[in-house]
Amino acid sequence: MKVPSVSPFLRGALLVLFLVLPLSAHVGSPDVYYDGHAGPYHLLVTIRPPAVIPGVAEIQIRDLSKNVGRIDILPLRMVGPGAKLAPRSDAAQRNAGDPQSFTGSLWIMARGSWKVQVNVDGPQGRAEMEVPVAAISTTSIGMKVGLGIVLVLLGLLLAAGAIGIVGAANREADLAPGEAPSPVREHRFRLSLVFGTIFIVVTLVLGGLWWSDEARADAKLAYKLPRLQAALEGGNRLRLQLDNPNQSAWKQFQSELQDPDRLRVDDLIPDHGHLLHLFLVRTPDMRSFWHLHPEQKGDGQFSIVLPAVPAGHYRLYADIVHHTGFPETQVGEIELPAIAGAAVSGDDSGVADLAESDKVSPLSDGHRMIWERDAGTLNAGTLNAKQAIWFRFRVEDRDGRSATDLEPYMGMAGHAVFMRTDGEVFAHVHPAGSVSMAAAALANGEMAGVDMSAMHHGNMPSEVSFPWGFPQTGDYRIFVQVRRAGKVETGVFAAKVSQ
Amino acid sequence: MSTFPVDRSPSNKPIPWYIWASVLAAACIVSGLYWDISWHETIGRDTFWTPAHLLIQFGAVLAGVYSSWLIFGTTFGKNTAAQSISVRVLGFRGPLGAFICAWGGAAMISSAPFDNWWHEAYGLDVKIISPPHSLLALGISAIAWGSVILILGEMNRAEGALHNRLRWLILCTGGFVVVQDMMFKLEYTNRVLMHSAVFYLAVSIWLPFVLEGIARASQWRWARTAMTGFYTVFFLLAIWIFPLFAAEPKLGPVYQHITHMVSLHFPILIVFPALALDLISPRIQQWEEWQQAAIAGLVFVAVLFAVQWPFGTFLMSPGARNRFFATQEFAYFLPSTVASVRNVFFQLEATSIHFWRNVVLALVAAILSIRMGIAWGDWMRKVKR
């Protein structure tokens, strides 16, 4: 979207800024939602990163265990020397009208992988947890017309004043009291007005060029959505080449070796057991949905033999995590013929013909998945953008009894994909929230890429929930995946977010 | 002298309140700037409402108040005496200095919404030198120079004791202009650059203009020494007083353990080249202006090199790491690998050709600055309105 024109002189040379959808590990969904435990304290943390870096992140913390006395928050780099050199923490303020809610703001000073340390104090002692945040500049806001007009008027006043002062200095500043300026001085006055005007115009043009230069330099630092290249080979092998458009622009230090946050495609770490999670969604009907795990064949090169995917135009979303814990979602598109592939196996999953529902999504063997939209706190009864919501889904058998045969799927009780129907918003969310589990492990001092299958053992509850918030209005599909009796099941729901 | 003075004689007239206000405005702005830089080096995080910003804003508002009073009072009042010593700008009447101060205040106020938008669009102070900050700096300079010209107008009409008292105020305000100029050059006047020619180039640009211009306008023999002495005392007091106040960083990464406000560096020894200029000034006054500028520029650069180069060596030594010279004071964001923390010089010029090119440029800059200062000072000496 082109920013409305404000003034030629303030904009200087042509300055075109684009408003783009904010990007992050997900697509169009920069906010972080994290459901975690700081020792005995159960917290739901929402982090709204700034649109530009350096900037101020807004933090909201919900005390779910209802026994928190005080919360302090602190931003830290995920890796590198800065990770251990913290400034003093800030107290999150308890909301007077809602004592379970705390808010605060933190300054994020550089692009890259960060974490917010949450220090909790309460009757059960002190405890801490860390929430990963990807800090990126995503957008250059345009200037509102009102502000533009105010600045133009002030600028004109300053320009006229400067010219007038130069003229007065030449005409009468050195005259004796009461002495009238001579014709020679009047002539000098007029000349100085002309030269003053030329000087001001040249200054403004140069200033405008400078502004444009700064805007261009800033645009280079804005995060660019990586677009992978996808190609079908031999009728059923999908080859992917990852993109790295932010590599050079993100050089923050003289030596690239010193820059811990430099983005590379050969530094990926596994996120619950896989280097890459690939989602294929057929558009526009969104009825064919696949969650696959291609294997790495080289730096940034991945490949997989596709299962029996029906023909159509597919959007591709590839989730990866860099060694710094910085997550990215690469996007792509491909036209696929009907693939004569085998059935899915292992952690791969997918359904060729899904039918979305508002509330009840049929699974295999007569089972059903129910979106409990009205249950509990932070329920999803009304769907508003920018609001933390607990999305709860229950699996029941053909007789309406809660399912007892759910199993962990890649270490998780479930996986959810939130996707706007135009494909411009995509988020892969877990019961712990929108953060990458590899980044969460790194942030909390655990070994990166730890096998998360150890997370869940034994009987799984029939309900799975995901904290997340719609970033924008629009029509969404929610794909919810759970493993039941050794088989991955996918439910799909439609959601309309109107405000 | 009349025993029944209806009006006080010019020499006994008190200094008008707006003159004091203009000096106070310059003082607030310059002190606020110093405080703000120290705040950024110590605490890091700032808002529109930090005390340092409030002090700067108070200076801008004060400038707006006295200059508006002077301009509106002269334009719409019936004081013909005031009108006879005014200039006309855009239909308004008032002293020239008041118009310059008013312009400075307006520029500073205009920069605020511009800067706020800049932060939202491009990030919080990604670069210190940005278009809105430049507008702010222009406004700040205009208030300081406007104060100088306002006082000059008064001084050039005054006689006797009042003239002398006003001259002291001009030198005081000139001192603030020098402090301001040296703060704008901080990046190039760090002690790690004292053995690089760029340091001497940075000091030689503009500063000789300020010294020569105000010295000529004030018509006092030791004006340059007084103004640079003012700067020296200001910086010395700051490096001794600021660390008395407890503070800690609020932005990370924190590379230096800091428990108190970090001051800026020990004053640059510009008082010595200024003293040299004061000493030679009466001897070269009869020369042609370009000749004066050439010899004064040469002396300025030569004396600066002669005193600052060896003093730079001393500042790198353990003997300077104490409360008096304060070379152990570092901003929280400086890693232990940087030259200043390691107490070593940074050679900005890679080759001797680069070095000598910058030496020559320093000389050229000093000569041009002094030549411009001569013209500027001669004009300011005549300002009466």
Kindly list the characteristics that best describe this protein:
heterodimer, A: 499 residues, 5-stranded antiparallel beta sheet, 4 helices, elongated, B: 385 residues, mainly alpha, 2 strands
Note down, in words, how this protein is organized:
The complex is a heterodimer of chains A (499) and B (385). With 499 residues, chain A is of the alpha+beta class. Helix content of chain A is 15%, strand content 36%. Chain A contains four helices and 27 strands. In chain A, the strands form six sheets. Chain A has a five-stranded antiparallel β-sheet with strand order 1-2-3-7-6, with no helix packed on it. In chain A, helix 2 runs antiparallel to helix 3 (183-221). The longest helix of chain A is centred in the middle third of the chain and has 39 residues, at 183-221. Mean pLDDT of chain A is 85; it is low at 1-24, 253-257 and 448-454. Chain B has 385 residues and is an all-alpha fold. Chain B contains 13 helices and two strands. Chain B has helices at residues 17-42, 51-76, 80-84, 96-122, 131-157, 160-184, 197-204, 207-218, 223-241, 271-284, 289-316, 339-342, 352-382, and strands spanning 87-89, 92-94. A two-stranded antiparallel sheet of chain B has the order 1-2. Chains A and B meet through strand 4, helix 2 and helix 3 of A and strand 1, helix 4 and helix 5 of B.
Major protein interface: A-B, 56 and 51 residues
Q: Give the count of helical stretches of chain A.
A: 4
What is the percentage of strand-forming residues of chain B? under 5%
Mean pLDDT of chain B: 92
Give a concise summary:
The complex is a heterodimer of chains A (499) and B (385). Chain A is of the alpha+beta class and 499 residues long. Chain A contains 4 helices and 27 strands.
